[in-house]
Prior knowledge:
Elements: H1 13-26, E1 32-34, H2 39-51, E2 60-62, H3 67-74, E3 81-84, E4 103-105, H4 120-123, E5 129-130, H5 139-150, E6 161-163, E7 166-168, E8 174-176, E9 180-184, E10 187-188, H6 194-205
Parallel strand pairs: 1-2, 3-4, 3-5
Antiparallel strand pairs: 6-9, 7-8, 9-10
Amino acid sequence: xxxxxDSARAIPKWVELEYKHMQALAGxxxxxxxxxxxxxxxxxxxxxxxxxxxxxxAPGLAHHEGIIELLExxxxxxxxxxxxxxxxxxxxxxxxxxxxxxxxxxxxxxxDDPPRDRTSDLRVLGFPHRxxxxxxxxxxxxxxVTKLVVEDKxxxxxxxxxxxxxxxxxAKESVEMxxxxxxxxxxPVLPPGMREHLHxxxxxxxxx
Length: 208
Ligand SMILES: C[S@@+](CC[C@H](N)C(=O)[O-])C[C@H]1O[C@@H](n2cnc3c(N)ncnc32)[C@H](O)[C@@H]1O
């Protein structure tokens, strides 16, 4: 849903890491579709998915068309699609994985601090929707939590989270992430490679 110009610019590294994490979290019995991409982002992602297909991860598919066109093309009615929406009245529950939905839809939106309710751009299209609690998650976390609830049947309230973690690199360098993450002990579950990327990015920001 972000501007995606048809230029030669590749997908940013952190987006690539989040997308790969979504595939890993979804697992091999699902597919992860990325829609409404520019032609150049579509090609970049197709190459990435072809080069790095992991048998334990969901296949990734990149599409130039938007979500509505894709659903029409595949004959999926809107009421079979559950939009994950922080403003929904109903929480996602394990029963939502019992066949009433066949697709789960996430806004491809940069997190805002504070959130600006940009998921409303999808809400107005009329999908049934569910929330994952009151705190904004990264999109890969929202997908991972959805998988735990609808496939692994873990109630939302039984999942352990870490809110707004501070990622410490050393005594002088750290960064606070304004999101909710799944907890692995005392650590947030970040995409593999994200910690190193954040550190490199932090150093780059201060290079003159
Ligand atoms: C990084 S979030 C960005 C949300 C955006 N700042 C907004 O205000 O709508 C990207 C997507 O993750 C999903 N998401 C994140 N946190 C959620 C929550 N607490 N409940 C439901 N969906 C959530 C939604 O699909 C959302 O569009």
